[in-house]
Amino acid sequence: MPSLPATVQHRLRHLLLNALTFALCYLTANLLAQQQGIVRHAALPFESSIPFLQWMILPYLSSSVFFCLVFFMVKTQDELRVISQRLLLATVVAAILFVIYPLQFSWPRPVIESPWWAYLYASLTLMDKPYNQLPSLHVSYCILFWSALRPQIQPGPARSLLAGWLILTALSTLFTYQHHVLDLVGGALLAFFCIIMITPRKTEPHVAFYYLVAACALLSTGVLAWHLPLALYLMCSLLLVSLAYFRRDCNFLHKRNGLHAWWIWLMYAPYLLGYWLTWHAVVWRERRKPVVIKLTEQLWVGRRLSNAEASQLPADCSIIDLANELSETRALRAHTYRYFPLMDLQTPPPDTVREILLHMRAEMDGGKTVYLHCAMGYSRCIVLAKLYMSQGTLIRP
Asked: Which CATH entry fits the domain spanning 292-392: 3.40.190.10, 1.25.40.20, 3.40.50.720, 3.90.190.10?
């Protein structure tokens, strides 16, 4: 199935996520190395003969332009996902290495006589202190930019120009005295690692990856850099969520009778609180909209309802709860209640889908109205309702 075109909202969302991750991780690693007074470096003996070329400041600065433009130059949602996830992975892995083994550039930056070039060169220090050396994110990003932009340009002068400029951008780190040779090698290896790990043509969101990235960001900033106990707890909790999504473990929250046990709250509080706050935000945002959608006389769908909202349901309504990450409302549990664990943003297992559809068929054949709900009423319940409406007459035990 071909990937859908990427919208402006998709592009801005990925750009913002990458920019925030870069700012948090990169600046934290820089500040930590500066506070520690790091002086060790990875310079090779011959590098002292490398000349400083002030015109190389321009390709060096262009990396930030590519960082923004690449999200708008790819065409499909899958291409956007791939470059976004590759950049995120490169950023958090590099940040961890920067914090574990910080390095400093080995000699002072030169004095530039031209006011124009001096101004441009000084602007580098706004982000690029003489730390965060190995691996060079500049080089990693250039290779990842090329992997995303190459398919967008037909073979010819334009593609050759792009390749040449990105090579100049990578090499400019040497000739503007920002990095050493080993830094460039490390940056290239990191980029190839990201390309191998993040592959195209994935049909659903890689939820496990994003929780892993969040955990790695906490590792580099809160745990390794600032030694915060809370950051360690948050990191471990998000790693557990990432592992659950990677294993597609629908029962990882062990929800029973519509409720989560205390030890589940202890392990997964950040995840559960995040969904709880999101649910409240959705309730407030959609406060003037109908709380349920009546697809047929017997099939209603929507989000988890509050106790007050649940009064709108028929007295003999049968509740089907698909919201793995939210405890069920007391008023909804007072109805005929059945819970099926489904993971958000994931394709539901075929066996579970059939079990849900059979239960819906049985309840409706018994004359009951079914209220099928997930957390926010956007995905899981809609998918199951559509399946039922297309296959309902064929569903039999």
From this structure: 3.90.190.10
